[in-house]
Amino acid sequence: MFLQSTTKQIKHYTKVMWGKRMNPEDKQFAVIGLGRFGMSLCEELSERGAQVLAIDVNETCVRQAADIATQAVVADCSNEATIAELKLDDYDLVMVAIGDDINANILTTLLLKDAGVKTVWVKAKDTPHCKILSKIGADKIIRPERDMGIRIARNMLDKRVFEFSELGSGISLAEVVVTARNMGKSISQHPCANSDETQVLALKRGPEVRKAPDMDMEMQVGDILIITGPEDVLSETLRKL
């Protein structure tokens, strides 16, 4: 479906828009920057039923995203008027996935925060970039290559750690596979459940997920414990498994 811009401001900053009308009652996300990372986000969010607005200055990228996202628009979000015209402050979360142009990445983030966007996540290139984004108010900073490298390294070092994610504010979440060593023991006897600073949120057994499981529940080989706690405490506990 092709939609021609009508207002002067949108027509000036936005060449064309493809897609269908978004339902304001649904959770809405906007992804700015349609490189490999941004396009993957649009695809995954859309597959999970989310309302997604895909934005880029490159019309070719936008045309590709039009088959994936709810709406796709050619626009320059490093311009304050564009952000206002697109009403990005109405969105639940805006992801700045601009990768190559760091200046545009930073300026877009700053303008989004100034416009009152509820939550702004940003893709960062390196540590100095992260520091700048933190100072201007980015709600979450992502370094995809670094984060994925850390996750893979943890899994290479210890196959019992199925997943490890930083949640921010020094808190992390880990998915730990129960091995034969802990078979038949209660959840409370697992090393990750012994600390007062860590908490077992759920137990996954096959397709079943048991939230806040009974700590006296007997574990089986292959069960996955979902545990959260301070990153340093959780990391140290995992090293001792």
Q: Care to describe what's here?
A:
This protein has 241 residues and is an alpha/beta fold. The protein folds into 2 domains: 119 residues, NAD(P)-binding Rossmann-like Domain (Rossmann fold), CATH 3.40.50; 83 residues, Regulator of K+ conductance, C-terminal domain (Alpha-Beta Plaits). It has 8 helices and 13 strands. The strands form 2 sheets. An 8-stranded mixed beta sheet has the order 1-2-5-4-3-6-7-8, sandwiched between helices. The chain is elongated. GO terms for molecular function: monoatomic cation transmembrane transporter activity. This is TrkA family potassium uptake protein.
What quaternary form is this?
single chain
CATH fold-level name of the largest domain: Rossmann fold
CATH architecture group name of the largest domain: 3-Layer(aba) Sandwich
- Which term fits the overall shape? elongated
Mean pLDDT: 84
Throw out a few tags for this protein:
Rossmann fold, elongated, 27% strand, five-stranded antiparallel β-sheet, eight-stranded mixed β-sheet, disordered N terminus, Alpha-Beta Plaits, 8 helices, alpha/beta, 2 domains, 241 residues, single chain
List the helices and strands and how they pair.
Elements: E1 2-3, H1 8-13, E2 17-19, E3 28-32, H2 36-47, E4 51-56, H3 59-65, E5 71-74, H4 80-85, E6 93-96, H5 102-114, E7 120-123, H6 127-135, E8 140-142, H7 144-157, E9 161-168, E10 171-177, E11 199-205, E12 208-211, E13 224-230, H8 231-239
Parallel strand pairs: 3-4, 3-6, 4-5, 6-7, 7-8
Antiparallel strand pairs: 1-2, 2-5, 9-10, 10-13, 11-12, 11-13
